[in-house]
Amino acid sequence: MMSKDKISKTDAEWQEQLTPQEFDVTRKGGTERAFSNPLNSEKQVGEYSCVCCGEPLFSSSSKFDSGTGWPSFFQPVDDSAVEEHVDRKFFRTRSETRCASCDAHLGHVFPDGPQPTGLRYCMNGAALKFTPESKD
Length: 136
What we know:
This protein is of the alpha+beta class. The protein has 2 helices and 9 strands; from the N terminus they run H-H-E-E-E-E-E-E-E-E-E. The chain has one domain: Metal Binding Protein, Guanine Nucleotide Exchange Factor, Chain A, CATH 2.170.150.
């Protein structure tokens, strides 16, 4: 399978498209305050996609309340949707998660989540766009 080219834009192009907080989180690796994003408590059925490029990242079926203050999931919609990178900021080593399509910083993944994966994808709500399932 051939991998597709990553979406690449200048900072100025991203800044035109994103809010200041979305830009800080996704393009500069920032973190929003815990419990500050409404997606943390979102309970509707639907899909969470990248706020930068719109690619699907997580389903509400894998979302759980981790109590951390950030939207948390036990798996992405597809193994190729999210990439992991070593993050050595703040004197510790963590696994940073980025959108595989546009390299947007999403959050981090930790090995303390629920089954079936045992993983906790701890995401910044500012990096996600939620689309409720349509009720046709």
